[in-house]
Each structure stands twice: as structure tokens, then as C-alpha cells.
Amino acid sequence: MSAPDPFNPSPSRGDRFTFGLWTIGNPGADPFGPAVRPRISPVEIVEGLSKAGAWGVNLHDNDLIPFGASAAERDAKVAEFQSALRDNNMVVPMATTNLFSHPVFRDGAFTASDAKVRAFAVRKAMRAIELGVELGAGTVVFWGGREGVETDAARDCRDAILWYRECLNFLSHWTKDQGWDLKFALEAKPNEPRGDIYLPTTGHMLHFIETLDLPKMCGVNPEVAHENMPGLSMVHAVGQAMEAGKLFHIDLNGQRIGRYDQDLRFASEDLKGAFFLVRLLEGTGGYEAYQGPLHFDAHAYRTEDCQGVWDFAAGCMRSYKILAAKTKAFDADAEVQEIIAANHVDPENIGPILGKFSLENRDALNKLDLDPDALAAQGHRYERLDQLAMEHIMGVRG
Fold first, then answer.
1. Is the pLDDT of residue 91 over 60?
2. pLDDT at 188 (0 to 100)
3. Residue 81 belongs to a domain
4. CA-to-CA dists, residue 326 to 68, 255, 394, angstroms
5. Cα gap 385→389, rounded to integer Å
6. d(Cα 78, Cα 291) in Å, to the nearest integer?
7. At 166, which helix (H) or strand (E)?
8. Other residues' Cβ atoms within 10 Å of the Cβ of residue 304
9. Which one of 40, 47, 128, 382 is most buried, counting C-beta atoms within 10 A?
10. Which residues contact 169 (CB under 8 A, 6 or more apart)?
11. Does position 215 have pLDDT exceeding 60, yes or no?
12. Are residues 238 and 346 in the same domain?
């Protein structure tokens, strides 16, 4: 009889799991119906997440401070929230600002045609950054939910990108001038709530960052749902961000291709995609692991009551830990290692020739005996490799 498996998927603070006030606090309203459960207060969210084993909680400014609150109201709510964080040993790794809910942002925030609206958005972002710093956040996320159009007659997209850049440059320089060592993480989404959102994918954001005044300060915050909505690969988006050293934050959830932004429980859809995403983040395939917060930007089904919300939160964390264990087993599998090694073998040491151009490497490249027909005849055993991944995911191979 084999020994019992000591693996335990229950989360702990060392896992660096975080949720947003807006995720746990989502009352189940949608465009077709009102809320179905009471809102959970920020203090109750902190207490509940601590009991569930989470490490931290993130927030938009207006998740904690109502729009238009007085200075006294703001300070009182911040003090109450800070007390709850201390009492429950919780942290705030990331803060963001809501630049999409208020009607003033109906035509965008940083890309609004009206310069006064852009000025208001930048000033609101400044106050949100101040709040984040006060709560200990090291990362500020910018999601441009209203940064888009329903008709391109509204403005030339080149103007919008210019204004977007100006606003982020202003905020970057202001942050540096304050003496704060913060990271900005830009979050892409292709559509919803706008018909088209500017800079719709992580790849777009990575290029845009290189045009900013302080590109080293800025990275990306990819989200599973936002990449999967149009049928793109979250695994490739995250891999590109990691290769560029720009994965500053990540939003984990579930999503069906072609649907509205569902924000489902992590790994509840596209389990294989979630498996390979966790493999990237955990570094079990050989690269360095991601060390930042693992943030679940999702919410419970509308069918759930408050207890169901905590079932949802536990499910996100447990699924991640289960998949992390399975990716480790997959990459330790001797047959997996054999197939991968066979495909990467380079007995003639050709790789270094392609690694850097030189006259010597040019001549070496031209002398290589490269038979395309022979190369084309080689199989790669990816069918078997993928089946091994599936068997690890399904739990029949360990």
C-alpha cells in the first residue's frame, strides 16, 4: 500500500494570493438585473480573506472611499481599513483607480476628447496613488475601461494614444518627484464596456510602454479573461511579458472564448490553458518563477449567497495550488523530459551560430548541411507530450 499523498491544496500567506475588494464585494448585479446579495464591507472582506488563507487585498480608490467623500470621511475609512489590515495580518500589494464608473468618463479618461476630463482623470489618479502609498501598495494598475470608442468618427486614434501617453508620463514623473518607488502595470482589454478599447492586448501595451518617458517604471498586468475573450492565448501574453521583464502584476480568472467578460473562478474554464499558465508562473519548466502577487480578479456566480462567495474564493486558491503541484509533476516526468530534450538536441552546436551575427557565423551558417526534406520527415511526438500533460491534469499520472 502506497503512502498517503502529503499534498495539501489549502492556501497560506506564503502563496501570495490576493483578491480585490471589488471581487469579493461583487453583489451579483448585471446589465439585466439588480444585486442578489448584500455587499460585504471592506473590513469584513479583509477578515474573511484572512481566515481563508489569502495574503492580501487590492482595491480601486472608490471601493474604499465613496466618490465625492469629504476629507474627514476619507480619513476615517482609511483608518478603519488599516486597523483591519493590522488585526488580520493582511497587506495591500496593489492599488488602482476607478476611471470608468462615473458619467464624467463616458468618453474616456486619459483618452477623452475634452482636456478637462483628462485633467480630472489625472488628478483622480494622483489621489488614488496617494491612497495606495498610504496603504503600502508597491504597484499601481491602470485599466482603461473607457479608453475607447464606439465609432472612429469620434477622434483619430493617434490623438488618443498621444493623450494616453501624456497622462501616464505626467503621473510617472509626479510619482518620481514624490520620491515613491512604485511600479505602474498597464492592463489591456479588447472591448467592453467600449465597442473597441485602445491598446487591446498585452502585446499592444508592451510596445506602448517603450514609447513612454520612464519605460522601466512601467510593465503590464495581463488578465486571463481579457486575452481569452477574442481567442488569444494568455500563456503567450504572459510569456512575452516575462521574457521582456515586464510582468509586474497578473489577474487570474476563467473565461470562455467569444463571451462577454465573465470573470469566472480561476481554472473553471480552459483547464489546460490554466495548467500551462501556472507552469509559466511557477517556473517548473526551467525558467525563473514569477515572484509577484497572484491576484484573482473574478467573482462568484450570480446564483450564490454570501457563503457561496467564500466558496468561490477558496476554489480559486485551491485550483491554483492543485495545478502548481501538477505542473511540478509534469516537468519532473522522465518521459516528458525525454521528449522535450529530443526536440531541443543540438549535436552540431548550431544554436550559437544563430545567437549573434558575425562574419564568422555567417560563413558557418552558409556551410551547414541543411536538408529540408530530411528535416521535414522528423516527427516531434507533441501528440504524446500533450497527452502526458492531459493525464497529469486529469490525475492519472503522477
1. yes
2. 98
3. yes
4. 48, 21, 9
5. 6
6. 28
7. helix 157-177
8. 17
9. 128
10. 212, 213, 214
11. yes
12. no
Whether 2 has a pLDDT exceeding 50, the answer reads no
**pLDDT value, residue 5:** 57
In the set 5, 15, 30, 63, the catalytic residue is 63
Active site residue 392: no
Report how many domains make up the chain. Answer: 2
CB of 150 closer than 8 Å to CB of 195: yes
63 is an active site residue: yes
Asked whether residue 251 falls in the same domain as residue 214, the answer is: yes
Same domain, 79 and 194: yes
Of 93, 26, 89, 52, nearest in space to 295 by CA: 93
**Pair (132, 84) in one structural domain:** yes
Residue tagged active-site, from 60, 226, 249, 295: 60
Give dist(CA 315, CA 313) in Å, integer.
5
| Same domain assignment for residues 345 and 387 | yes
Q: What is the pTM of this model?
A: 0.96
Which has the closest alpha carbon to 137: 91, 186, 87? Answer: 91
41 half-sphere exposure, CB direction, 13 A CA radius: 8
Residue 203 identity (one-letter amino acid): G
